């Protein structure tokens, strides 16, 4: 080309170079693409920078517009400039003074796909549209179904745990989660997974009973705009063989039975003895027992126009070509020194899919294809990476994911993937290289816990940490081994994974003021831990007292009633026996007891002794005469004037000894 053309070409190249430098200063970072639920809301995360000292918010104006059309504004501080379709539906939630241009879109419509770009207008300085960083929105017509994690088995009397969670892209109006049972307060958290994706989760822990068996537990998520989604799980409760609720009352009842039975036995025995004595003529004493118990434009000639058009065509075809040969990686990515890191990677090429045997994958340093950190022929790998890298993706499935083991602090990269397809083409994806940020020490795990722990109620601890090595995820151990935790490992996207462990148990007084420790062990035996002290609130529970007392009282009433009727029966029998024989030994002893008792009350009484067949007791001037009764062998029985017959009531007083022919008073 001639001199003029060379100068023009050089000028264009300089413009491109300076534009690149300039755009590095005017720079914005957004999350794209981003999902949005139709009829709900979406937040477009955005930060920006400009080549000047930071201006106050009053001098910075923020505008969001459609790509290539600064007039089609979806947000402007002056709502008059906003297109009708977006009026009253957008607001800036970021602070421009802090270089935050985050936008919220409400009442999302299925045609709000964008792309949308941010434009900064700084008073008395400059204006710039960040069209290299525009946001494309992917519409979701229906909400995602929430995920419900649960224990594999539920045992009666033991704590069980349910976790319901869902991702969303509207942190200003996060979805709410409700459970089908309201007797337990769940613990809800809302965390940022990065790249504009948030996650809300609800943890529900309770002690399972037989009433929960075959019951459904439902988790309902309500998104902004009153859009609902739910998931249900049926609970199957395994019965736990626990007989404490039977043993304690039974022991109490048996103890009461023995006590009252013994007492009642002796009472009845004494009554029986009394009856026998009555029947045999002996007396006894009764004893009673008692017992209590939670744009560039310029004019140019024809030759210049042709050259410029050629350059544009080259750029266009290069763009198309690069769109076909395309790789997607997560960059930058963190790596823990001495541990491992996995670099997620997928790629595409302008041909039908080749089998894995015809595709060769290579990872090399940016700009140096000979500096290979991975090659299936290990002879081509640089010494520093020998035996430390392996391809974990399947090239036949266009997956080029790489694992690096024994990470060193100088393994920062950037590293690019190169595909060599036999009998077709070779290509290095240098527009998509991975830069590694080194972490010399492991992050401390996060430990979530209940604000208060109550004795006898389930309590929940959650320990979790992010990592970038899913092929060798970290392990989590707790300081107490009597409970089996539930461990999950999930992908948060962009090469970041999260492992979490949920520990649920019923708190007792023994747990009060004890430390609970969560220890995370990364690949390479690198440890990190966090500790929390438990404070247990005592729960006033009197069932262990009430149940035995009620059982004892019931037994007392039962046996007391039975014993009462038995003793009453025996008493009646004794009275009947006494009434049938008023002049028996028992009656006479009773009368003698009354006489002796009478003498003690009347010391002046005078008793004279008379002959055997006559007795007279003087009390005042009256006396009585006991008639003489002749021998049973006499010819005729004598009667007193009052009609008294000697044989009536006195047979026990007289003894006829026939053999001795003796009679008389005994």
TrEMBL record:
Disordered: region residues: 587-641
Biased composition (Basic and acidic residues): 599-608
Organism domain of life: Eukaryota
PROSITE patterns, per the entry: IG_LIKE
Keywords on record: Membrane, Signal, Transmembrane, Transmembrane helix
Keyword Transmembrane set for record: yes
Position of the signal peptide: 1-23
InterPro entries assigned: Ig-like_dom, Ig-like_dom_sf, Ig-like_fold, Ig_sub
Classification via SUPFAM superfamilies: Immunoglobulin
Keyword Membrane: yes
Ranges where the Ig-like domain occurs: 143-232, 442-531
Transmembrane segment boundaries: 246-268, 542-567
Polar residues compositional bias, start-end: 609-622
Name of the protein: Ig-like domain-containing protein
Origin species: Hemibagrus wyckioides
């Amino acid at each position: 080309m001639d001199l003029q053309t060379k100068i023009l070409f050089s000028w264009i190249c300089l413009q491109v170079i300076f534009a690149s430098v300039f755009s590095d200063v005017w720079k914005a970072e957004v999350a794209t693409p981003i999902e949005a639920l139709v009829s709900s809301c979406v937040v477009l995360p955005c930060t920006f920078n400009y080549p000047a000292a930071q201006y106050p918010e009053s001098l910075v104006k923020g505008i969001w517009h459609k790509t290539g059309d600064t007039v089609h504004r979806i947000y402007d501080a002056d709502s008059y400039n906003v297109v009708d379709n977006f009026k009253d539906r957008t607001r800036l939630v970021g602070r421009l003074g802090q270089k935050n241009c985050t936008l919220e879109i409400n009442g999302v419509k299925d045609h709000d796909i964008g792309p949308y770009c941010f434009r900064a207008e700084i008073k008395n300085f400059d204006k710039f549209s960040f069209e290299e960083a525009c946001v494309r929105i992917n519409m979701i017509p229906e909400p995602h179904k929430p995920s419900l994690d649960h224990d594999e088995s539920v045992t009666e009397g033991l704590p069980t745990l349910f976790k319901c969670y869902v991702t969303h892209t509207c942190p200003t109006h996060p979805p709410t989660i409700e459970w089908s049972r309201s007797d337990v307060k769940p613990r809800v958290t809302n965390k940022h997974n990065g790249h504009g994706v948030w996650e809300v989760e609800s943890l529900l822990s309770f002690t399972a009973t037989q009433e929960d068996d075959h019951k459904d537990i439902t988790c309902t998520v309500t998104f902004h705009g009153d859009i609902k989604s739910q998931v249900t799980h049926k609970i199957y409760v395994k019965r736990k063989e626990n007989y404490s609720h039977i043993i304690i009352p039974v022991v109490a009842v048996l103890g009461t039975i023995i006590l009252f039975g013994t007492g009642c036995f002796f009472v009845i025995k004494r009554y029986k003895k009394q009856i026998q004595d009555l029947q045999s003529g002996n007396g006894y004493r009764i004893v009673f027992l008692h017992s209590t118990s939670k744009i560039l434009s310029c004019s140019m000639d024809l030759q210049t126009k042709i050259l410029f058009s050629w350059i544009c065509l080259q750029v266009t075809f290069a763009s198309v070509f690069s769109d076909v040969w395309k790789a997607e990686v997560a960059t930058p990515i963190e790596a823990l020194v001495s541990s491992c890191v996995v670099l997620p990677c997928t790629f595409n090429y302008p041909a039908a899919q080749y089998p894995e045997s015809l595709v060769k994958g290579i990872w090399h340093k940016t700009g140096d294809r000979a500096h290979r950190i991975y090659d299936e022929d290990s002879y081509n790998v640089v010494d520093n990476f020998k035996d430390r890298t392996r391809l974990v993706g399947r090239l036949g499935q266009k997956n080029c994911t790489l694992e690096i083991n024994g990470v060193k602090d100088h393994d920062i990269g950037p590293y690019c993937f190169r595909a060599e397809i036999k009998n077709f083409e070779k290509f290095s994806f240098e527009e998509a290289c991975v830069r590694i940020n080194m972490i010399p020490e492991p992050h401390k795990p996060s430990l979530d816990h209940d604000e208060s722990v109550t004795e006898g109620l389930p309590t929940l601890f959650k320990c979790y940490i992010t990592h970038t090595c899913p092929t060798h995820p970290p392990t989590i151990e707790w300081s107490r081994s009597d409970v089996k935790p539930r461990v999950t490992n999930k992908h948060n996207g962009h090469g970041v994974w999260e492992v979490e462990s949920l520990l649920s148990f019923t708190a007792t007084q023994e747990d009060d003021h004890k430390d609970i420790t969560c220890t995370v062990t990364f690949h390479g035996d690198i440890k990190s831990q966090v500790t929390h002290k438990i404070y247990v609130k005592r729960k006033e529970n009197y069932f262990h007292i009430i149940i035995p007392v009620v059982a004892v009282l019931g037994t007392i009433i039962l046996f007391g009633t039975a014993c009462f009727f038995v003793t009453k029966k025996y008493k009646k029998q004794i009275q009947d026996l006494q009434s049938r024989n008023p002049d028996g030994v028992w009656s006479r002893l009773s009368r003698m007891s009354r006489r002796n008792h009478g003498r003690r009350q009347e010391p002046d009484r005078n008793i004279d002794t008379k002959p055997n067949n006559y007795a007279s007791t003087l009390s005042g001037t009256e006396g009585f005469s006991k008639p003489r009764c002749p021998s049973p062998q006499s010819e005729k029985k004598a009667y007193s004037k009052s009609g008294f017959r000697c044989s009536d009531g006195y047979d026990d007083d007289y003894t006829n000894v026939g053999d001795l022919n003796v009679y008389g008073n005994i």
